[in-house]
Amino acid sequence: MLPQIQFVYNDSTSHVGKLSTIFRTATMQGYTYNGPVDCTRQPDSSNLKGTTAIVTGGANGLGEAYVRALVAAGVNVCIGDLNTKRGKKLELELPGTKFVQCNTANWDDQVRLFQAASKHSPTGRISYVVANAGIHRPDEVFTYDGDNAEPRKPNLSTIDVNVNGTLYTAKLAMHYFVKQNGHTPSENQEDTCLVLIGSGAAFLDVPRAPQYDASKWAMRGIMHSVRRTAYHYGSRVNVISPWYVRTSILSEETFNSIEALGIQFATVEDAGECLIRILSDKSINGKSLFVTARKWAERGYMDLDLEDYDGIDLLQEIQEEQMRSAPPEAGLFV
């Protein structure tokens, strides 16, 4: 277990001051707000070739789209999914892929997934982790059990997969990133990135689905917690939040009903390009990109620019005080 730093906040010779000096030498910039990401540029994926990525829930739907986009960019991909049939089919079809059966709600399964990815990697390194695995089911938190019935304990499997499973993924990703890049910033650190998969439900009112909504807001919470410290280890963290995309997460009947209302969908291809845009640009850290209908964005994704408080002086002041009371350097691994 790595030791934690102890801090004395009123001591000018404390570890905080020393660490601040050390971290100014880092090759990756700490989190700063520089306005929204320009999502009109076609990404240049040439710097991704030969790296290795993990995609949880990568055997179908959006996860499969992320896998295909990564493979097209020359990335070796380890696919973690419960669907063995689909996973093995992709492994046979796509060069440089390896399938590992994995229930992301199970810690031991995810440990095996990361171990397999490290062995699958030509260099032994894991550069990118896409925490995509998630489910959507009828929400028993919302369900009314009747006037003459006692309320029944709800099934919280959505939280188990979407939140607990993602936290397992985040823990393992950062462990491997720190282990690979070391505890002290240096010119030898290689770019690593954790991408959390949110949803339009992470920004919008979505009735009747409190668990799913909570789980997708949680992706933003994880990102906000990590984005100011990950750079010390040469790492980044970002969120992709898709709009309606035709996948198996909802029934065909539901999608047809939505489309009949005149609502335009996003596409899996645009979601894949959004991922490549994030991974190929080392300046993108602490951002949420929204994969959306083309009527709203030229390339099918955009930065809604909701993760900071530009122009809202009170919230900026509160954020600054939060950083003073819990500085990013506190509790870093050394």
Automatic annotation (TrEMBL):
InterPro entries per record: NAD(P)-bd_dom_sf, SDR_fam
* Lineage: superkingdom: Eukaryota
The family database entries (Pfam families) matched by this protein are listed as:
adh_short (PF00106)
Q: Does the keyword Oxidoreductase apply?
A: yes
**Could you confirm whether the keyword Oxidoreductase appears in this record?**
yes
Q: Where is the signal peptide?
A: none
Q: Which GO terms describe its molecular function?
A: oxidoreductase activity
Keyword set for this entry? Answer: Oxidoreductase
User: What PANTHER family does its record include?
Assistant: 3-OXOACYL-(ACYL-CARRIER-PROTEIN) REDUCTASE (AFU_ORTHOLOGUE AFUA_6G11210), CHAIN DEHYDROGENASE_REDUCTASE, PUTATIVE (AFU_ORTHOLOGUE AFUA_2G16570)-RELATED
* Family membership: Belongs to the short-chain dehydrogenases/reductases (SDR) family.
The molecule here is called Short chain dehydrogenase/reductase family oxidoreductase
